[in-house]
Amino acid sequence: MKYIDEYRDEHVVQSLAAQIARRTTRPWNLMEICGGQTHTIMKYGLDELIPAGIRLVHGPGCPVCVTPLEVVDKAIAIASRAEVTFASYGDMLRVPGSHSDLFRVKAAGGDVRIVYSPMDAVKLARALPQRQVVFFGIGFETTAPPNAMAVWEARREGLNNFSMLVSHVLVPPAIRLLLGSPRNLVQGFIAPGHVCTVMGYWQYEALCLDFHVPIVVGGFEPADLLEAVDMLVAQLEEGRAVVENQYARSVRYEGNVPAQRIMEQVLEVCDRKWRGIGVIPQSGLRLREEFAAYDAERLFGVGEMTAEEPPECISAEVLQGLKRPTDCPVFGAACTPENPMGALMVSAEGACAAYYHYRRHSIQSEVS
Predict the structure, then answer these.
(1) Do residues 308 and 320 share a domain?
(2) Pair 20, 54: CB distance under 8 Å
(3) Domain check: are 38 and 155 in the same one?
(4) What distance in Å separates the CA atoms of residue 145 and residue 181, rounded to the nearest whole number?
(5) Phi and psi of 87, rounded to 5°?
(6) Nearest 10 degrees: Cα torsion 73, 77, 79, 84
């Protein structure tokens, strides 16, 4: 615990906050990409420790939150089939589709199971040869290597009853979209440490050059995030725009090369729709043609399904850092973790859930 506690040490945190205050001479808008970073900021009140002129906005870094509504509908349609055992991480079960969710499918008798890795789903396929086992493969670059390995292993073993519903997204194209928007207000980014542990941070150099914006790879503890903010403010105040690595204890420039190789062998880059944002070119991953036999979307004929977001939900603007969850008229009222209207309120990494758990009482006090 000592190693973790060092990154939560009150004196270290206060010292970093004071250093940021000394550096800051003008307002700056900074975005953390990862939902785990958002929850740390909210839980520990880091945004209240730094100067008021530094505004931390929350980006599209929650894998559950950016999974399109129609992909959830596809999962529900597949899971509802009598011959299917549908395996998923637990946080996807409560994400609302257009008319239902995976928990309701399970309650109605569907064979929906929570697993803790894609290899758990492969084990189910071995143990249940009479069933069609489908794994819900979502996420950023972080979860792509184990998902790719599961498909590779299923093919190696000849498991013809295993498939995957794939909805993977990539971080750099999303940052490029945000920076290219005429509505963009972000001047510096905290890149997600877990993604960069897999992919490295060389891909972010082009973004710095093209948009003259600094990017710092950040960790997930309070001291990590304040140090990343300090590094960004230093660059902005000096007029620099390069990639720096705060999370050096985990991230290397080149990333995890063996993990990248299994991704490249099984998956290929494609255009991908992001929930609330729309299609971002070359921002996703799908199974390569040689692994088509393991593509659940093809196997179960759900590729053409489409869906529209609820008009009340402002998740698109929250994911782009244009609004805060508390700007939503249904936040904490019609939309709560128990009765979520959108994925940002469901996920353990969602910005709306973070505000609900850590800020709603102070917000209610201000209103009253």
Answers:
(1) no
(2) yes
(3) yes
(4) 31
(5) -110, 135
(6) -150
Give the H or E element holding residue 365: helix 360-367
Structure tokens at 181: 């928007």
- State how many domains the chain has: 2
Whole-structure pTM value:
0.91
Domain shared by 325 and 280, yes or no:
no
Range scoring the smallest mean pLDDT among 3-12, 133-142, 177-186, 293-302: 3-12
Whether residues 217 and 348 fall in one domain? no
Which pairs with CB-CB distance under 8 Å and at least 24 residues apart come from 350-353?
Answer: 350/35, 350/62, 350/64, 350/65, 351/35, 351/38, 351/58, 351/62, 351/65, 351/318, 351/319, 351/324, 351/325, 352/315, 352/318, 352/325, 352/328, 353/39
Distance separating the N- and C-terminal Cα atoms of the chain: 41
pLDDT tens digits along 31-79: 999 989 999 999 999 999 999 999 999 888 888 888 988 999 999 999 9
Q: What is the extent of the structural domain holding 246?
A: 1-312
Which token pair is 220?
A: 């997930």
Position 297, amino acid: E
| Same domain (yes/no): 308, 319 | no
Asked if 262 and 135 sit in the same domain, the reply is: yes
- Other C-beta atoms lying within 10 Å of the C-beta of residue 123: 16
Q: Are residues 251 and 270 in the same domain?
A: yes
Q: Is the dihedral of CA 99, 103, 104, 110 positive or negative?
A: positive
Q: Are 166 and 120 in contact (CB under 8 A)?
A: no
